[in-house]
C-alpha cells in the first residue's frame, strides 16, 4: 500500500509540473503575440509620421550636441555652470559701471541673486564682488540690472546705510557670512561676477 501511494504521489507531482510548464509556455507565446500585434498596429496605423519622428529625434540630438559644445566652450573660457546659469568671475577689479559693461560685452550682465542657494553659491568664490544691484535711479529703491525690484535680500546688519556718502551699488562684502551684502560707491574698484541666465544643457 505504501509503495502504491508513493508512486501515485510522484505521478501527481509530474503532472502538476507539466501543467505549470505548459501554462508558462502558453503565457510566453501569448505575450509575444500581443507585443507583435501592438507593434504592427502602431506602425501600420500611420506610416507617414515615422520619417517625421525620426527627423525630430535627429534634430533634437543635433541641438543637444550644439548646446553641449557651446557649454564646453564657455567652460574653457572660465565660466561656471550652476542651476541653469553660467557665471564668470573677473580676474581684475573695476568700477561697477565698467564691470557691468564687461558683462554686457560677454552677452551677460552682472549677477542677479534670486535665491538662498544662488547666494551661497556666489559666496563660495570668497571674494568681495560687485553684484547687479543699484539704487542709482531712486535712493533706497534697490533694483536689479534687469529692472526687477528686490524681493529676497542678504544685506549685512544695518545695511544698506549709505555711510560713505553716495553708495548706490551693491556688493558682496563679507563672503564668509550668508548676509553679506553692502552698499558701496559705484566708483570703488571690485572684482565682479557676470551671469548668463537660462542656459539649457539638455
Automatic annotation (TrEMBL):
One of its GO terms (molecular function) is carbohydrate binding. Keywords: Disulfide bond, Lectin, Membrane, Transmembrane, Transmembrane helix. InterPro entries: C-type_lectin-like, C-type_lectin-like/link_sf, C-type_lectin/snaclec_domain, C-type_lectin_CS, CD209-like_CTLD, CTDL_fold. Residues 82-195 form the C-type lectin domain. SUPFAM superfamilies: C-type lectin-like. It holds the Pfam family Lectin_C. The chain crosses the membrane at residues 19-42. This is C-type lectin domain-containing protein. It comes from Oreochromis aureus (Israeli tilapia).
